[in-house]
Amino acid sequence: GQQVMQIPQYQHVQEGEDFTTYCNSSTTLSNIQWYKQRPGGHPVFLIQLVKSGEVKKQKRLTFQFGEAKKNSSLHITATQTTDVGTYFCAGIQGAQKLVFGQGTRLTINP
Amino acid sequence: DGGITQSPKYLFRKEGQNVTLSCEQNLNHDAMYWYRQDPGQGLRLIYYSQIVNDFQKGDIAEGYSVSREKKESFPLTVTSAQKNPTAFYLCASSILYSPQGFTSTDTQYFGPGTRLTVL
């Protein structure tokens, strides 16, 4: 079945440093979504990427979808303590359900 | 105030008992989902439903059951057959749409979750 792998599993940075998490699928995805889960909270939708090679920005967050639509990345520039949480990617392969990656837990040293 | 609600927030169960987790949405979404999250882990799909009176097994359906008698409601029963039920359970809902002839799911909206502990 479809698998979505996400790395790294954990990332600890100093406040102000950049952060990147990567997502790879075993199959071509029709689209990919990114979610953020704060500690003790529930996942909240950040963005959806649909087109091959698409790049979208939300303030300090940059999301990319690979040319082959099998990988994606989330990059945060100059992290802040409010960025703490677990970031999940979730892919769809033309079916009606998302397949979530394992998530990358980001912790920040102020 | 639109949204998706889950109750209770915390639930304790004795081993061997069935327990039902509630999930309600007033977003008029077609699809609803149940996920399980273990500490430090991702989300694993238990069951999902795209339409009333119909549902499909996800990746880890064994030991769980669901019903979808109303569009707004998708309760999950954790049965005594579930060997390791202690976990954080998340319900989600989404719109389904068909942009290119196949049905796809839009953004998933998650409820606040129910933390189940088996004593």
Describe the structure.
The complex is a heterodimer of chains A (110) and B (119). Chain A has 110 residues and is mostly beta strands. Chain A has no helices and 11 strands. In chain A, 0% of the residues lie in helices and 55% in strands. The N and C termini of chain A lie far apart (41 Å). The mean pLDDT of chain A is 93. By secondary structure, chain B is mainly beta. In chain B, strands 2, 4, 5, 6, 9, 12 and 13 form a 7-stranded mixed β-sheet that branches. In chain B, strands 1-3-8-7 form a 4-stranded antiparallel β-sheet, with no helix packed on it. A two-stranded antiparallel ribbon of chain B has the order 10-11. The mean pLDDT of chain B is 90. The chains are: A mainly beta (110), B mainly beta (119). Chains A and B meet through strand 4, strand 5, strand 9 and strand 10 of A and strand 4, strand 5, strand 11 and strand 12 of B.
What is the C-alpha radius of gyration of chain B, as a whole number of Å?
14 Å
Mean pLDDT of chain A: 93
Strand percentage of chain B, roughly?
over 45%
| Helicity of chain B, as a percent range | under 10%
Order of helices and strands of chain A: EEEEEEEEEEE
So what's the overall shape of chain B? Answer: globular
Major sheet of chain A: size, sense and barrel closure?
6 strands, mixed
Percent of sequence in beta strands of chain A: over 45%
Count of DSSP helices of chain B? 0
Report the order of strands and helices of chain B: EEEEEEEEEEEEE
The number of distinct β-strands of chain A equals 11
**Based on helices, strands and strand pairing, what is the structural class of chain B?**
mainly beta
**Judging from the principal axes of the Cα atoms, what is the shape of chain A?**
globular
Could you list the spans of chain A in which at least 5 consecutive residues all have pLDDT below 50?
A: none
Protein chain pair with the most extensive contact, residues per chain: A-B, 26 and 27 residues
Count of strand segments of chain B: 13
